[in-house]
Amino acid sequence: MLLQKIKKNLYDYDSWLELHSVVNAGFEVSDQMMEYIKGGLYTCLWEFQHYKPPSPRNLGIDQDGKHEIWHKVMCFIKVICGGNRSAKTCCLCAEGTMACLGSRRFTNYWHERTPIIARLVAPDYPNSMTKAIVPTIEKFAPPNSYEMKKNGQGHVNLITFSNASQLQLMTYEQTVMKHASVSLDWLGFDEPPPKNIFNENMARLIDRNGVCAMALTPIKEDGGYPIGWIYDEIYEESLKLENNKKYFWVNIDIEDNRKSRGGYLNDESVDRQIEEWRKDETTYTARKKGEFTHLIGRVWKELDHSVHIEENSFDVSDRQKFTRYAAIDVHPRNPMAYVAWAVDQNGFGWIYDEIYKVGRIKGLCELIHEHEKMYGLPFVRFIDETADAKNELTGMNVYREFGKYKVFCRKASNHNKFPYGIPKVRELLHPEKTNFSDIPIPNLKIFRKCTRTWYQMTHYVWDEFQTARSRSENNPREKPRKKDDHCVDCVLYIAENNPRYISPHLNRTKEDENIYVDEVTGYVSSRE
Fold first, then answer.
1. Dist CA 272 CA 464 (whole Å)
2. Whose CA is closest to 491, among 437, 455, 516, 464?
3. 72, 200, 340, 402: most buried by Cβ count inside 10 Å?
4. How many CA atoms lie within 13 A of 183 on its CB side?
5. Are 307 and 292 in contact (CB under 8 A)?
6. Could you count the other beta carbons within 10 Å of the beta carbon of residue 363?
7. Pairing mode, if any, of strands 336-344 and 322-329?
8. What are the structural domains, with CATH classification, of the chain?
9. DSSP label at 348?
10. Three-state DSSP class for 88?
């Protein structure tokens, strides 16, 4: 009866435990039952004995540990982002092993799909793969349930399980073409992968509707490849409710692996290591907390999505209520940017519109006219002062080119020489109590639709010296990094000119009949 029950549900743990106790007690069992015990069904008991993810239950918390939650979630990409010794690699290896064996320990998903083709990718063979990944898989997989194959250099690169599932072991050092061709059911990344390796491997999941698991410590060593794309494309996307079936992200602190919290690390050793990491902010943030470090040097650390994003756009076209400003940043090769900013009678500001495109000045001007028909003409438009540089042959410049298409601008001050805009924006972003609200609110918010402006402002960072030695021997650099900052430049052009509400009888634009507009500058004098 017990055997029949197990046949119907191979991962009925209670029945297995009962069967195990029967055998251990010395009762005679049939050869058929012994065959089951010696075979793949023993995987169930093996998992319980050899893989116990850290859990906070010892603290009396009535919930699963973070590691266990991560195992139970099924989605397209799930990430366990942890500090050093937070058991993230153990989780990844266990996840891959259980997927290949069709385990039902955390989910029924893989039991219904085996045998599968899986791949686990790590930084290199000699260290990551040979010293960490392979020994961990050997620990979690039942004895005699797998066979390992080595490549020409003597490193294990393929594990074939007794149920015909295959786990390929590859590295970031291999060329992109080496990662091509095969179709996969499961894909795992240990530590942050290069973007091109990630893209090629993700394409392998299409045919078999596969899923991806990642375990990483988000730190880039000197000379390493960029990892900021993981933050932008996976972490930030995982925060959106509409993506809860596509992405899942959990952060693991080394604290979650203390023995006193249900983990495996000695508390005294953890305390000692944390004190060592505290000496450097970047090291502490990544290695202890498992948090990204590429934005530690943010210019505007005050920016908070829950505070500074205006979820519900509203009409700012009424000149009685708002004074509108705009700025343009032009480049021959990089995208051109246009940002619009409105200030109400109480001094509160909103960045309400943006344009970000590569192309000709004429095309940008046409878009600007379309947008300004919806919101109304701005009181003034600013443009980079370098736009005044003349072409020696034609005598034309960018400044006059915009004027030719009726987009009149005023030259902005050079914020690289006079960085007033940066502290001005910081002041506006700082939440303060007002006469209208006891809850602190900022004087500048950004409409949710202005995604490019928000992205560039939250990724605007101070430039740093490239080597650790240079950073230790010099004061921090005073200039922000010149990358993906075109919308930010527009924001600074406006901020440096102290945007404020101006009474309508002074807030005159070209749409007023009683004002004379110069064909080049667009702003001169009244006819009165």
1. 29
2. 455
3. 340
4. 6
5. no
6. 13
7. antiparallel
8. 2-38 (no CATH), 64-288 (3.40.50.300), 305-526 (3.30.420.280)
9. -
10. helix
CA distances from 351 to 90, 302, 341, 499 (A): 46, 16, 4, 11
Amino acid at 53: P
User: pLDDT tens, 292-315?
Assistant: 766 667 888 888 888 999 988 899
Do the Cβ atoms of 47 and 71 come closer than 8 Å? no
| Run of H or E residues at 504 | none
| Alpha helices for 162-248 (secondary structure H) | 195-203, 228-230, 236-238
The residues near 322 (Cβ < 8 Å, ≥ 6 apart) are 316, 342, 343, 344, 501
Q: How far apart are CA 322 and CA 331, in angstroms?
A: 30
pTM over 0.85: no
Q: Which of 191, 257, 264, 204 is nearest to 230 (CA)?
A: 191
User: What b/e string do you get for 312-344 counting C-beta neighbours within 10 Å, with b at 16 or more?
Assistant: eeeebeebeebbbbbbbbbeeeebbbbbbbbbe
Task: For the chain, give the number of residues.
Answer: 528
Q: At what angle are helices 13-24 and 31-38 packed, to 10 degrees?
A: 120
The DSSP secondary-structure symbol of 168 reads E
- Residue 65 DSSP code: -
Mapped onto helix, strand or coil, the DSSP state of residue 475 is coil
Asked if residues 394 and 401 have their Cβ atoms less than 8 Å apart, the reply is: no
